[in-house]
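can u do me a favor
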């Protein structure tokens, strides 16, 4: 099977500027509806959010989603109906398994805008007991290598404690990796194998670390390629769908003049 890479350009994402919130939607979300970009495998939401100081999302309910936040800059205050209160900072990964239902709020904490990715995935089972997990990954842990920050609950090395080292556990057939790639550096990734399945889906996203930009993507510049010669060039805010076989090698090369922070999803 030929692997294909289909770009998802930054300016083509759903977008809303509410003043207090500036947000991009990779997939259909809220007022942005697009049947061609509704979900990908079990991946349902990738929102790149910027929330102004002293503002945020008031208390609201969720159920039957795995919800995780990847903090890029600033601080994010999380409160929920399970009694969790936490201030998340750069490098923190918070995962809420909403299960039968939770209520939570998210606010910018302090005097600086918070920039984070909000990601939702569809669980493999319904009716789960709600759970909350946090993990921290330093820039050094991501520099020029893949840090595995989220993995299925039954994957090797996954710890089910609220706070621990290693990837946060998710009830989805999804693994999430993050890297901060230096200029002139190439980083390979081999898609995982799952018993009984040879087909994989991937999604890669280049985070807008250099600043908010509604127009055509600028900033960091990477080239993504796979073994059969398919390539695509991406800049900050751009992403790409990847479809093909397990065990195939994907390569991400930083062809720009600055570091590129990227996240990579590997799914059935």
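np, heres the sequence
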């Amino acid at each position: 099977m030929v692997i294909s890479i289909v770009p998802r350009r930054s300016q083509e994402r759903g977008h809303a500027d509410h003043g207090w919130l500036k947000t991009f939607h990779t997939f259909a979300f809220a007022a942005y509806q697009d049947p061609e970009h509704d979900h990908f495998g079990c991946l349902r939401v990738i929102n790149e959010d910027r929330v102004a100081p002293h503002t945020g999302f008031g208390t609201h309910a969720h159920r039957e989603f795995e919800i995780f936040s990847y903090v890029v800059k600033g601080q994010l205050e999380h409160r929920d109906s399970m009694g969790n209160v936490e201030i998340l900072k750069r490098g923190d990964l918070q995962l809420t398994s909403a299960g039968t239902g939770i209520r939570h709020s998210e606010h910018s904490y302090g005097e600086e805008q918070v920039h984070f990715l909000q990601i939702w995935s569809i669980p493999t089972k319904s009716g789960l007991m709600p759970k909350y997990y946090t993990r921290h990954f330093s820039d050094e842990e991501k520099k020029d290598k893949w840090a595995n920050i989220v993995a299925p609950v039954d994957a090797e090395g996954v710890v089910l404690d609220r706070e621990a080292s290693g990837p946060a556990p998710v009830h989805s057939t999804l693994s999430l990796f993050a890297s901060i790639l230096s200029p002139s550096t190439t980083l390979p990734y081999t898609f995982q194998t799952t018993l009984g399945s040879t087909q994989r889906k991937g999604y890669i996203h280049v985070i807008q670390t250099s600043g908010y930009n509604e127009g055509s993507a600028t900033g960091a510049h990477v080239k993504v390629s796979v073994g059969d010669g398919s390539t695509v060039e991406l800049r900050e805010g751009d992403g790409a769908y990847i479809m093909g076989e397990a065990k195939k090698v994907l390569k991400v090369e930083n062809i720009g003049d600055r570091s590129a922070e990227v996240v990579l999803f590997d799914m059935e």
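The mean pLDDT is 95. hope that helps!!
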